[in-house]
Amino acid sequence: MLLSVGWLSASVAGVVCAHLLQRICFPYFWKDLFFLLKVMRYGVNLEVSKLRSEVRTVLDKFIHQAQRIPNKPFVIFEGKAFTYRDVEQRSNKIAHILLQNTNLRKGDCVAVLMNNEPDFLCVWFALAKIGCSVAFLNTNIKSRSLRHCFTSCGARTLVVGSDVADLLDGFLTTVLEDNIQVWAMKSSFEHSQVHTILDKIDAASDKPVPALPLTTNIKTPTLYIFTSGTTGLPKAAVISHLQSLKAAGGFWAFGGTQDDIIYIPLPLYHSAASLIGIGGTIELGATCVLKKKFSASQFWADCRKYNVTIFQYIGELCRYLCNQPKTELDKVHKVRMGVGNGLRQDVWRDFHHRFGNIKMCEVYGSTEGNLCFMNHIGKIGTVGRSNFIYKLLFKYDLVKYDMVRDEPEKDNRGFCKRVKHGETGLLLSKVSALSPFFGYAGSKQLTEKKILRDVFVKGDAYVNTGDLMAEDQEGFICFRDRVGDTFRWKGENVATTEVTEILGLVDFIQEVNVYGVEVPGHEGRAGMAAVIVRADHSFDGEKLFDCVVRDLPAYARPLFIRLQEVMEMTSTFKQQKFHLVKSGFNPANISVPLHVIDYKLESYIPLTDTIYQRILTGERKL
């Protein structure tokens, strides 16, 4: 009896000690385990469907939801609710119109140039029902980049929204000359060669279109989403059914349910809103509130009006919300979770203090990437969480990076060198059967430039994310900086080579080096260009202003100009950006002339100490 009591006491003590040890040494063990099991279950289901050749795509899931919950609101837009049945039937109508009036067939690519509205979804789903892949075009890009987008993804048909028809000015003639058929979501259009959809929609059938054969290959491309990169012009990232389905599970993985109301203020032409936002809403069978354009002043009023429980964000969006005047209603809402990326630590803390303890779920991953980190713990300042189980499934490494030479450091055998815990390194993600890299449409060189080979051993291949990260002893991952020829501003990626090409067209500019500089109180980096003026010319701020406004979207325009006599080069004969980035835009610390963009004067004007201080205090908006 005494032995039994002693054994029981020892067992209880052992369990208690083990529990205390786990709480002290592995405080996130159970949260990590349950989250990974959930994500792995989702992944296993995808793998099983792939093996059985029974792939249920995001479109298949939407059609299923339209049959299961036809009367439930799917999208709320500008106060009007559109049920799952409404969107299903309207997308059927558009599909019938296109089938009857075009030669579109399964496998064709169609470009969509539309702002946020329910018809964006109806057109997207209609084209998917026909069997077409869809290219989402950024409504901010200019005509030169738009033409390139068609070439890269092979689209021969364009569908435009009614409110973006003005973007076709100066571009429509070129498109039509290239034998690209244009359809507008309007009842009439002044150009006779542009076809219209809305005048045909009442008479169109809302019955399902002829059923396509089931998708058997989960890796088949379904979307092209354009992203800026080192090649300058936008690149068409190939989005397969596999990537779409993985993204659609994001809200569910973080604890979303069918009862959630999801607020989507981000543009649908980006993967966050379309793949995670719309795809996630469909996966849950939930309702989303689609905003045409983000408004800081209307955000919380919308959340209260529609009983929003989850919202999507980028870091800049949260900063705008924190900068709004405080009110007594700041914490009066039902929002429990935010899902997004790029949230700075200071803004994160301010956001919690101001609007309540909302769980902010950071997600790290590029549109075309093969790796995703998810901060399911909610630790402030981290973009994701990793552990030994995750590393068994997804192979990634942080390697030492030479900021001056702008390349990974190599050992004496020519292989990359891993960093230690806590050190900053370049994030590389291994290409494997479990983590394939689909790359970009068009030239194979675009995809190959994103891959590093022979990284640790001969024959291996890793995707170069272009991001500097750090991982601490507990497995939390922090974003540090971007490298190479891309930086982020106003929630958009800016390709420095594209900006360089545009500035190089100005007659008085001999050489340009474009980079991003940090501005206190702002997310990302503001565009700056170091410029050498030709010997027989002088700097003309008005001419440069006209060029950038005409040919570049607002987020890509250089805000600051630095006049140089010479350009510093790296040892590999690339333009040196590191020292320029570090020196910033403070005129007190820079001996060469600086200029700043001025929209009122429609010119680049000298950057004085007074203007610099007004930028720092926020009096002068950027």
From TrEMBL:
Specify the protein name. Answer: long-chain-fatty-acid--CoA ligase
Please name the NCBIfam families in this protein's record. Answer: PRK08279.1
- Provide the top EC class: ligase
Question: Would you identify the family this protein belongs to, as annotated?
Answer: Belongs to the ATP-dependent AMP-binding enzyme family.
**Keyword Nucleus among UniProt keywords:** no
SUPFAM superfamilies the UniProt entry points to: Acetyl-CoA synthetase-like
TM stretches of this protein: none
Keyword line? Cell membrane, Fatty acid metabolism, Ligase, Lipid metabolism, Lipid transport, Membrane, Nucleotide-binding, Transmembrane, Transmembrane helix, Transport
Q: Which PANTHER family match?
A: LONG-CHAIN FATTY ACID TRANSPORT PROTEIN (PTHR43107), LONG-CHAIN FATTY ACID TRANSPORT PROTEIN 6 (PTHR43107:SF10)
